[in-house]
Write a structure and sequence with these properties.
By secondary structure, the chain is an alpha/beta fold. It has 19 helices and 18 strands. The chain has a six-stranded mixed beta sheet with strand order 5-6-7-3-8-9, with helices on both faces. Strands 14-15-16-12-17-18 form a six-stranded mixed beta sheet, sandwiched between helices.
Length: 544
């Protein structure tokens, strides 16, 4: 059990947490949510002891062990990969080190023998003889091949390092596990393995993630940080979101009688209880939701952007024709002989095991890069908008306020400031914020400006390269909802599982040896055994 007592934390005059009191209990996974800047990562750092709170205490049961997914990717550069993972269980690692030192002593004494016997006993109790094989298995499950297990951490690229540090956090069955954005840089198969691992984990987990599918699959509770308060809710993220939205609608409906509101809430809980039986944590979570007091359901104070994409004109049936498009980069083939046609009913997710390939493809068809060979052609009725993954070039060295920055992308040169304020206001830029200089925006603010730009262009074909990057859960959810209502054609890529599953009706995967093109939903695509085998073949290797 992890007990937070009267935690208050301030940054100057700003209060992140005001006397937070909560108990995190074994067998549960808590998704820590809150708007950007609310203090989610800071809260985990306080729990881990990396930051001292202004006041209050954090307590664990005596002898309990906490493990943390570390964000410092250089901390273990001087150590081999396997050793880095073993260091995740600090006590076991220290026993192993001391044992090795004693066995290596030239002047071994009787006292050393007694100490060694004690260490061997502790080592056996902690299942130390299986530690290296367990660590190696953990690494392999997280996509780190055996050939790298004895390499040094400074020899690995950033994405592999992240997986090693995740293995370090998971290793040795910790009593409390703190994970900050654990699915970053994980491929489909590895993220699914992590979901299953955490669903079966018997101890306490706290996780910060912007991946709603991940939160839904692993979390039994939501820990909501809002207005300096920390509140626990039973259920996963989707349950919390839909419950809070229902409560908000009910609060605004003054004409509905209390009995009707209560019945509506009871029906909502019953529906979610039935759905939860399909989840990986079905039994425990269903019992908790069945016992949920409807008084626990509160309206959210969150602000959600108003993301609405409208078309100036409806597209004809022909959207895009791609013929034998090929692109290489720094000596490696990104994609080869890519050919397909898009029609107006298509909502396409682009996949690749190499993110550079997708960005290169988008840049080529938006005339920001050149293909090695091949052609592409848009339909004559197409009005397109592109949201790139890297947007700094749209903001660097531009001494414009947000209203004037947006005006330069308007199809209507005479658009007045009221209309521009409307587009920016939908993305939560209000009041004097629209006079903020574009070049000083944060990453999330830049993405919100780019979304305003896309809405302003009123396209019938949208292209989105990792559109959820830098956005908080509220913006991601609003973006997802807006795209579900969008009537135009769509081509996008994202690591957000829910985004893909709720939007895509077609999957196109770019590989060095061609493409895989299927009219199907995402979940069917990633679980189809024949497609799995084809994917491995197309990438030129077979993986476990």
């Amino acid at each position: 059990m992890l007990i937070v007592s009267n935690i208050t934390h301030r940054f100057g005059a700003r209060i992140l947490f005001d006397e937070a009191n909560v108990k995190f209990t074994p067998g549960n996974c808590y998704g820590v949510i809150g708007a950007n800047g609310a203090g989610k990562s800071t809260f985990l750092k306080i729990l881990a002891g990396d930051i001292e709170p202004t006041s209050g205490t954090v307590q664990m049961e005596p002898g309990a062990r906490m493990s943390v997914l570390r964000q410092n990717h250089f901390e273990f550069d001087a150590y081999p990969v396997l050793q880095t993972v073993l260091m995740g269980n600090k006590k076991l690692y220290e026993i192993m080190k001391e044992k090795d030192e004693l066995y290596a002593k030239a002047d071994f004494t009787d006292a050393d023998g007694v100490r060694l016997g004690d260490l061997e006993s502790q080592f056996a109790e902690m299942d130390g003889w299986n530690a290296e094989s367990d660590a190696a298995s953990m690494l392999s499950n997280l996509g780190v091949p055996e050939s790298l297990h004895y390499s040094y951490m400074n020899e690995l690229d950033g994405k592999v390092k992240v997986r090693v540090l995740l293995a370090q956090a998971l290793f040795g069955n910790p009593d409390v596990l703190l994970l900050d954005e654990p699915t970053n840089d994980l491929d489909i198969e590895t993220a699914m393995w992590l979901e299953n691992f955490l669903a079966d984990f018997k101890n306490t987990v706290l996780v910060v993630s912007h991946d709603r599918h991940f939160l839904d699959n692993v979390c039994t509770h939501v820990a909501d940080i809002d207005f300096g308060k920390l509140t626990l809710y039973t259920g996963n993220y989707t349950f919390w979101y839909e419950a809070s939205q229902l409560a908000l609608r009910q609060r605004s409906d003054k004409n509905k009688k209390n009995e009707e509101k209560k019945k509506e809430l009871q029906d909502f809980i019953a529906r979610f209880s039935a759905n939860v039986a399909k989840s990986k944590q079905a039994t425990a979570r269903k019992k908790m939701i069945d016992k949920l007091d409807i008084e626990e359901i509160k309206p959210s104070n969150r602000k959600y952007p108003g993301i609405i994409f409208q078309q100036d004109r409806e597209a004809g049936n022909h959207i895009l024709t791609v013929s034998n498009l090929t692109k290489s980069h720094e000596g490696r083939m990104l994609f080869k002989d890519v050919s397909f046609e898009l029609e107006k009913k298509d909502k396409v997710v682009l996949l690749s095991r190499d993110a550079v390939a997708i960005t290169a493809f988008f840049d080529i068809i938006n005339e920001e890069a050149q293909a090695d060979s091949g052609t592409y052609r848009f339909g004559t009725t197409i009005t397109k908008a592109y949201l790139p993954n890297e947007n700094n070039r749209y903001f660097e060295n531009i001494d414009l306020n947000l209203a004037d920055w947006l005006r330069q992308y308007s199809p209507n040169a005479n658009m007045d400031e009221t209309e521009l304020r409307g587009f920016l206001g939908r993305m939560l830029f209000s009041g004097e914020e629209i006079f903020k200089k574009a070049k000083v925006l944060s990453g999330g603010e830049k993405v919100r400006c780019m979304i305003s730009r896309c809405m302003l262009q009123r396209p019938n074909f949208l292209m989105l390269d990792e559109p959820t990057n830098h956005l908080d859960l509220e913006s991601i959810t609003a973006f997802n909802n807006g795209l579900q209502d969008y009537k135009g054609a769509l081509m996008f890529t994202t690591h957000d599982h829910t985004f893909i599953q709720t939007l895509a009706n077609r999957v196109i995967e770019l590989t060095p040896n061609g493409i895989i093109d299927r009219m199907t939903d995402y979940d069917s695509y990633i679980t189809d055994e024949k497609i799995k085998a084809l994917r491995n073949e197309m990438y030129g290797k077979v993986t476990a």
